[in-house]
Structures are given as C-alpha cells and as structure tokens.
Amino acid sequence: MTSVxxxxxxxxxxxxxxxxxxxxxxxxxxxxxxPGESSTGVFDDCYRLxxxxxxxxxxxxxxxxxxxxxxxxxxxxxxxxxxxxxEININELTQIIRQNETSTNDFIVExxxxxxxxxxxxxxxxxxxxxxxxxxxxxxxxxxxxxDI
Length: 149
Description:
Layout: E1 3-6, E2 26-29, E3 52-55, E4 68-71, E5 73-78, H1 90-99, E6 108-114, E7 119-126, H2 129-141, H3 143-147
Parallel strand pairs: 1-2, 2-3, 3-4
Antiparallel strand pairs: 5-7, 6-7
C-alpha cells in the first residue's frame, strides 16, 4: 500500500494501525478533527511518509502525532454520471489523478454526492490556484477514466 485517503466518517484510529507500512508515502484526511489524537505509534516505521495532507478546514496541528500539510484551494469536477459515492474507489481515483498531475504538490480527493439529482462531484484540495487550474484541465480530460473505476 502506497497511499490512503481517510474519509471524514472515520472516528477513531487504533494504536499502530499503519505501523511498518514502509511503502506508504501519502495519507490524506478529509475531516476536521484528529481521530487518532490519543493513539500511539499509528505511523511508526512509515519511513516514506513525510506528513499527512489535510484540508484547510482541519482544526488540529498534527494528525496521529504526525506533521500535517494543509491544502485549501478546491477544484470541483462534476462527473454527471449518476454514480453513487460507494461506486467510486477513492484510492484508485487518487492514483488516476496523481498519474496525471504535473506538479509535485500533494492533494486530497473527496467524492460528494447530490442525492436529489444523482450527481457525483469530485473535490480535489490543493495548495494554490495555478495547481488547481492545471489539475482541473487534466481531470476534465480524464473524466471517462474516473467513471470507469
């Protein structure tokens, strides 16, 4: 496992949950509070993981005792596909976006649904508007690939 996106529905992270995941190089979290604040050793021996990427709405100064990097600019991509969030694999979607990203900046991916019209949007949190604009163009070009996940 090289990357993990943790949804805001996660309310706790157990001690040593990712210990010895030596290939783990990216963790993104969409929530506002640290679900592992009192946990021990969650990312012990994750040597390739420099920090946890969080949105600008995140309230804590660390995540499971690990440094954080905030991303505050949002890129919204409307799939207009009729898909439901549980039909989209966030980790695979993140990999597709990462493969097509030209910058070295980290980002967080969130899938949002509007049940009233069965629409699915993808929100990508990045750190600057130039990256956001570049990424939006790249993702728009890959929309069909995202729908096939």
